[in-house]
Amino acid sequence: MRLRTPFRRHQSRRYSGLVVGAVAVLSLAACTGSAQDAAEDDDGGSDSAPAAAAGSNDEEGDQVTIGFSAPAADHGWMAAITNNVRDLAEEYPDIDLQVAEGTNDVNLQISQVETFINDKVDAIVLLPFDGAAMTPVALKAMEAGIPVINVDREFDDPNAARVTVLGDNYGMGVSAGQYVCEQAGGNKDAVVAEIAGIDSLPLTQDRSQGFEDALSECGLDVDARQAAEFTVESGEEVAANLLQAEPKIDFLWNHDDDQGVGVLAAIENAGRDEFTMIGGAGSANAMRAIQEDSGVLKATVIYPSTQGADGVKLARLLVQDKAMSDLVEVEVPRTVQLFAPVVTSENVDQYIDSAFES
Amino acid sequence: MSEQSTSRDRGSVENTVAPSKDTVTVERAAAESGRGGGGLMSGSFGRNLGLVVALLLICAAGVVTAGDRFASVDNLLTVLRFASALGVVAIGMTFVITGGGIDLSVGAIVALCSVWATTFATQTMATDSHWIVMVFAALAVGAGCGLVNGVVIAYGKVVPFITTLAMLAAARGLAEIISERRTQIVTVDGFKDFFAADILGVPLLVIIFVLVSIGGWVLLNRTTFGRRTLAVGGNPEAARLAGINVNRHTVMLYVLVGLCCGLAALMLVSRTTTGSSTHGTLWELDAIAAVVIGGTLLTGGRGTIVGTVVGVLIFATLGNVFTLNNQDTSTQAVAKGLIIVVAVLLQQRLARNANST
């Protein structure tokens, strides 16, 4: 299933920023500064905010309280997830968004979800640090009658979520692999290298599997594979070692454009330019590099950073008893899987506005 | 010498709360320990008072900003459940720091224990015999890691910072190797049901935390082991001359914190129904922060379990108030840093005033 949200620049940001600022000043909530300050300051990341599609579903409905929790924003994609969620919530006056501290400690994330349950929010949008570890508390929420929208990293029990919004990790690998096959043009001796993300995550395993499967269609295989941690430092470190180990490479797929900043730095330091690099996730700087077409990075595969925002949108529809108006179906679907297109210099203009800043 | 008298004073202050422990919550016990010592302007009174004031301020902020959403039984349990596993680690950490050491490897040991207790082999064995196998596995692995730390520190004469830093890297690496960096899901129902139980509405995890706190308090303040810990941390040479086997005692302290990590790992495994090499990330810093704002001297020789428990509760409550108020990550991190500095400054000020009067 293919679902694409039309992206438009966020027109009302300046105005809403003023309102938020005024609210923040007037707010007597003591102990600390305001969450909205941060949301205001990160215009870079929020440029990718999806504008609402016009339609009757966007007409103001009942007030909906949505709890949102995600892992720590330790890389651009994850930061963009939360920024996009905040921006989307600002566009809808009927959404009251509760954002919990981004955390990589499952113990803390569980207690955040428990807080949402105590608060009797109308829906919980959850991007778990670890899907399996968050399953018990998601089940608890569902049992308490609060629909859970699972984003990106899946629970290990289908009953723990009402809706699941997923990127297509396997599809990312397939898209990258097919692009390599195309470019290799039948050369079966091409040396293919892969720099994966955090290896413990099922999503990384899916990406690698898709890549391998697509490559095998044209008789290629992965000659060297290393896993980094989605961070710039880890990308640099792993790429430096990989380049050292492989004196000649034809294609390099790097799963993640945030760690790609480090990968590109290592490639530059090593003075290598004999290969074609493909990125992943679709950051704005990767797309700018593709647009300029000056370095090794020739393409990237999108993994939408708007899926948290899509989760919130679906949560709102769900609570307001609305359906997805473009479908005939009268209920919000169970699973929404997003598409993973390949971005090259030819089509980059179509995607660059929805890219995230790393 | 002055250290010793301080610790004896604190002993007498905390002594006053011991009889009522069975019914009151740890939080209240902490408050009472301050009140109990009201007449004596002892140093520890000032320290604990500062802490309790800080906790009350955070609670007040919670009530003002979130009202009933904060002051509800469900929310209290949410805070306590969150604090439980970390609290158990912090109790163990209190002993090590009081004994003049430090343990940076607690988070990694928690991860390793959680992984070891949930491997396919362990779970198969648990299904075939009894789920208690998983408990033994976690505790044994924790104690084993602690033993290695202790022996290297005490007999190898490697400083604790370096030894436990090495263990931090090695234990998490081993956890990754064993789990192949995948999340291991618990399928043993007996284990899940036991730890998920409530007793009179209080989750078992919280009860374990309370029991460990009481046990830790008794061990530190009422036993030879506790007095030796203070002596070893205060002045190891003097402790040796007084006939204490300092090396053996040091090893025992690290085994103790290792056991606490094993127990905390079991609590986390039950809470998440998974074992993972990513469990307990950065817990060493949370535990040390709680111990230090609690009033335990980082240089050793002075330790307080009550302070540690209140310290853990301060961070847990703080995070809860932030979540209730919809605050973002960066603000929270800054506030946590401020709390650490302010709490320690406040304690020092109060302690100084108390000493000078």
From TrEMBL, chain A:
Leader sequence residues: 1-35
PROSITE patterns listed in its UniProt record: PROKAR_LIPOPROTEIN
Keywords for the protein's UniProt record, in alphabetical order: Signal
Chain spans, region Disordered: 36-63
SUPFAM superfamilies listed in its UniProt record: Periplasmic binding protein-like I
Composition skew (Low complexity), residue ranges: 46-56
Residue intervals of the Periplasmic binding protein domain: 66-322
Locations listed in the record: Cell envelope
Location, primary (coarse class): other
Pfam family, one: Peripla_BP_4
Family note: Belongs to the bacterial solute-binding protein 2 family.
Alphabetized PANTHER family for the sequence: D-ALLOSE-BINDING PERIPLASMIC PROTEIN-RELATED
Protein name: Substrate-binding domain-containing protein
From TrEMBL, chain B:
Regions crossing the membrane: 49-67, 79-98, 104-122, 131-152, 158-175, 195-220, 251-269, 281-298, 304-322, 334-351
Subcellular location: Cell membrane
Keyword Ribonucleoprotein belongs to the record: no
Recorded topology in the membrane: Multi-pass membrane protein
Alphabetic keyword roster: Cell membrane, Membrane, Transmembrane, Transmembrane helix
Superkingdom of the organism of origin: Bacteria
Name of the protein in question: ABC transporter permease
